[in-house]
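Q: Got a minute? One more chain.
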Amino acid sequence: MYSWSALSTLAILSTALAAPPSSETSSAPAPSPTVPYASNDPNYPRWNPRSNDTVPEPSRGGLGATILGPQNRLLDLQNPDALAPPTTDNGDVPNFKWPFSLSHNQLYTGGWARGQNVKDVPSATDIAAVNMRLEAGAIREMHWHIDAEWAYMLDGHVRVSTVTPDGKVYLADVGRGDLWYFPAGYPHSIQAKNTTKEGAEFLLVFDSGSFSEDSTFLLIDWLAHVPKEVIAKNFQVDSSAFDHIPSRGLFIFPSDPPPPNATDDRVVPNDTPVNYTFPLSQVNGTKSAGGTYKVVDSTTFTASTTISAVEITVEVNGTRELHWHPTEPEWTYFICGEARISVYASSSNARTSDFQAGDIAYIPPTFGHYVENTGNTTLRFLEIFKSGLYRDVSLSQWLALTPPEHVKAHLGVDDATIAKFSRDKQVVVGPAQPAPTYAKSQSLKSQLHTETDSLDAYSPHARILPRGFGEE
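A: Always. Here it is, folded:
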């Protein structure tokens, strides 16, 4: 009979001989898909605002039909991805677009103002904005707000000033592409200079989605509702000195332009510990493959403790890379060009919208998205955040810095593809890399044939290529 030790030895030897040699470099069997692969169908915009001879139709790839009833053709031309959305859109994502052109404008002697807040975009709970125009010399009535004010100059020059709660003074001029910031409750003034005959226009951004210019605290409006004898006592003058106070606030009104030199307008020299303006126009943008970007937050614009921003340019066929912001929503303002944004809201929910100059996008925190230049000129826009520090997460960088086998298990890509993922944030990427020579890949030729057939199926005009997006 065999001893227990002999039997144990035989069992170990038998197991060792039966098992294949272990190796950390051996590959697991190629996984088979548990669901169908994502579609290769092209999803370029069906047309663009310049497609003058096009009658927009809600159809794509054999789906949809023509419109038999009334149609706002010009509006549909501006929103191809609303009328004929890409097949990648799915589910129910709240509207995240608002054109300033739809905001109710308030007209004054000397300028106008129109706003956007949570009433226009219900999801925009953290940021609101006002687009304001002042003729040369016109004044925005001296005022203050419950919320902080961040501003970007769209054109012209203005002179701004503030007095801090501890009596410190700051006065400076701001030109096109520059910024100012006033903390909540700080009184301030804004007056357009006459460096151009048209005056100035600017964008005001507030760190509350419910902000409204109608709830601004105005100097004239306040004193018009204080008894004259109280005013006289407060300033230690005769009450007749205030006989010409207007009976209500003026909001915007004409006046003589300020002196050309800011120092001539100062009651006392500037003595605040920080500057409340920032010359963003003088900052060189960081260049990337598809455009440029300038980050401005409290690390560079010290006073701006609650709002940060990025000014981005995207060249034709370029894209603001796939990314998201961990904790803050993105309020986007388009200065020039044409774009489209697709947002991913988790749980298979995605939506695409198109944008032109003067439009606003509001993207909640953590929503994955990109911004693609769909026009034939350079796209310029602002990403604005309710935070003193700017942060984003780049999809490409995340995947490039994750173990390759883990990425391959998710996406089914090869090592050569992963090697092209950028370990640095690209911010703005250029057009897709050229494909290999068609003759070297029959499968690629077959795929290209399938895609162009699909393009012809839903395009009533020319085949839609990345440059031009639907132009004949």
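A: Confidence is low (pLDDT under 50) at residues 1-19, 22-26, 435-472.
Q: Perfect, thanks.
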